[in-house]
Amino acid sequence: MNEMKVAVLGSEGTGKSALTVRFLTKRFIGEYASDTECIYTKHMCLDGKQINLEIYDPCSQPRQGKLSLTDELHWADGFVIVYDISDQTSFAFAKALLYRIRECHMGVCKKASESTIVLVGNKQDLCHMREVGWDEGQKLALDYKCQFCELSAAEHCQEVTAMFTRILKNVTSNSKGKEKRRPSGSKSMVKLINNMFGKRRKSV
């Protein structure tokens, strides 16, 4: 069975946990502040193949402070970077995340060069409070050569599913022909992350 690992990153209040849960359960939950970091696991079928998906949802990252992301960059096959279209500060934070991933890509993290990234403008249902234009999100995605979409975790269940499915398909196509990671390595990496952050595992 193929293994895929996706990290969902963004500042507090962007709705990244709501996006994750919406995809996994089809249910919408309001954004909740959590001081625990979770790895959700889901067995699913993608293009006729069974995959074991792990989604890492860290507790909301603070807006200040150094973005190390070292463990996430080594661990994840793909990244979902989330901002709130009604919050300009969250957009600036998303830009900083993209910069950090690219910086690591150019540096020592070989893994990041194989990653697939999608920039997501969430809370499209709050268009009347918009602070970040669609064109700004599109331009940022072009600058960092990643995918972009706007949606609402609250209202767009199908769009959320399509976004996650697209990134998984891209991860699959990117990994073809590349040397497979040894299972022992990936397991020990998950164990290492769990030991460092004390995450809970949730199976859906």
From TrEMBL:
SUPFAM superfamilies for the chain: P-loop containing nucleoside triphosphate hydrolases
UniProt-listed PROSITE patterns: RAB (PS51419), RAS (PS51421)
Name listed for the protein in its UniProt record: small monomeric GTPase
Superkingdom in the source lineage: Eukaryota
Cross-referenced PANTHER family: RAS-LIKE FAMILY MEMBER 11
Family the entry assigns: Belongs to the small GTPase superfamily. Ras family.
The keyword Cytoplasm is assigned to this record: no
Keyword Hydrolase attributed: yes
Enzyme Commission code: 3.6.5.2
GO molecular function: G protein activity; GTP binding
Chemical reaction(s) catalysed: GTP + H2O = GDP + phosphate + H(+)
Protein keywords: GTP-binding, Hydrolase, Nucleotide-binding
